[in-house]
Specification:
The protein has 384 residues and is of the alpha+beta class. Helices cover 18% and strands 29% of the residues. It contains five helices and 19 strands. It has helices at residues 2-20, 82-94, 175-197, 206-214, 235-239, and strands at residues 27-30, 47-54, 64-67, 72-78, 103-117, 137-149, 156-168, 230-232, 248-252, 258-262, 276-279, 282-287, 290-297, 300-303, 333-335, 348-350, 353-354, 374-375, 382-383. The chain has a five-stranded antiparallel β-sheet. It has a four-stranded mixed β-sheet with strand order 2-5-6-7, sandwiched between helices.
């Protein structure tokens, strides 16, 4: 009982402080190793060079990091443009292996994002410091296509990688994480590239490959100035900014859990299974019977708790005031811990537990799952 009261008290104080203070965006630069010498696998084909192009949706903000003892959130960035970083790093790693008579490799990096989780096993609003002897986790979301060419003009597709790399006991930042992803991509490219060179497969120029990669359909939710009111029956409705459920009610149950029911004229109160809602012009993802405030950031959506106060659109981090039926929901969803400036916004909690990315099938242990910071715009699930 005392613990519950203390949690509620902290939530109230944090909420007041968040309204008074303004939090400016902080940055952490990702350092790359200066001498990342790597080797080609034995008996691999000769390679004359590797060219890299990226079509990452957000090539500036690469993720979020915990900064300092106060656990404030900082945005991960590179010191130079992403394409330059990628090409420079690949050259540093493999230039010494290039042969003039070799094939040319071309990589299209389509998604790249980093995340980290301190080894704390008790992520709560009261205790947030890492536990002694616990494990740190570092995450790299990596999506890339590999091509190969015998003449450096027409390229044949070799393979694709679309995965999340998990590294334990990470201690030197995300530079080595990027190197690890590039090493895996190289091995897969060389593994199947040799046989593909001799196959009668039509090739494409780099310009054709790039043009095809950037021809992405821009969803209305990313360009419309106003969001339509209602509940999204599916993620596709969210992308289309076209919620089909116009009449619904919110019912708050035990432990502040939220259920959405239809408001049919016949009086039936059937429970709705929805992706999210738009209420009073703001968007919320419905997750584990809680409403998580999200907002547009660049070409995607970020959990509002990770957006700096100075430009945050949705400050309803405690879900108060959504509707009359949601009164008192603040204890069900809380975000943040104390910081030196009296501002919060670091982690998002649901009923005292951190909001995690649980959609990665091979990372099913909650202690190792990433902290959710944004929406995966391909699937509609939480990502980092």
């Amino acid at each position: 009982m005392k613990t519950t009261f203390l949690f509620l008290l902290i939530s109230c104080v944090i909420s007041v402080n968040a309204q008074k203070a303004k939090l400016k965006e902080k940055f952490v630069k990702i350092d790359m190793p200066e001498l990342p010498i790597a080797e080609f696998p034995e008996n691999s084909i000769h390679v004359s060079g590797i060219r890299v192009i990226q079509t990452v949706s957000d090539s500036i903000r690469m993720g979020y990091a915990h900064k300092g003892m106060n656990f404030s959130i900082a945005t991960l960035i590179f010191k130079k443009p992403l394409t330059e970083i990628l090409q420079k790093q690949v050259n540093r790693m493999y230039k010494h292996e290039y042969k003039k008579d070799g094939a040319t490799i071309f990589w299209m990096i389509k998604d790249l994002r980093f995340g980290a989780k301190l080894g704390a096993t008790d992520y709560t609003a009261i205790q947030i410091s890492p536990a002694i002897g616990s494990i740190d986790c570092s995450y790299t979301r990596f999506n890339a296509d590999a091509y190969i060419s015998s003449d450096g003009n027409l390229f044949k597709k070799v393979c694709s990688i679309d995965t999340v790399f998990l590294v334990l006991n990470m201690s030197s930042g995300h530079g080595p994480d990027l190197e690890n992803a590039l090493r895996v991509l190289l091995k897969r490219t060389l593994l199947t590239g040799k046989n593909l060179l001799d196959q009668p497969v039509d090739g494409l120029t780099v310009e054709q490959i790039t043009f095809k990669a950037v021809q992405k359909t821009i969803a209305p939710i990313l360009v419309d100035s106003n969001y339509r009111e209602g509940a999204y029956a599916s993620y596709e409705e969210f992308l289309a900014n076209n919620p089909s459920v116009k009449k619904y009610e919110t019912v708050v149950g035990k432990k502040k859990k939220v259920k959405l029911v239809n408001a049919a004229e016949n009086g039936r109160k059937d429970t709705l299974n929805v992706w999210g809602i738009c209420k009073n012009g703001e968007v919320y993802k419905y997750h584990e019977e809680s409403l998580i405030p999200i907002e547009r950031k660049g070409t995607g959506f970020v959990v509002s708790g990770y957006v700096e106060n100075t430009i945050r659109r949705n400050n309803n981090n405690f879900n108060t005031g959504l509707a009359a039926g949601l009164t008192g929901l603040s204890a069900g969803l809380a975000a943040g811990v104390f910081m030196n400036s009296g501002v919060f916004i670091t982690l998002v909690f649901i009923s005292g537990k951190p909001l995690l990315v649980d959609s990665i099938p091979y990372i099913d242990d909650p202690k190792m799952q990433p902290l959710a910071t944004c929406i995966d715009m391909k699937t509609g699930e939480f990502s980092f």
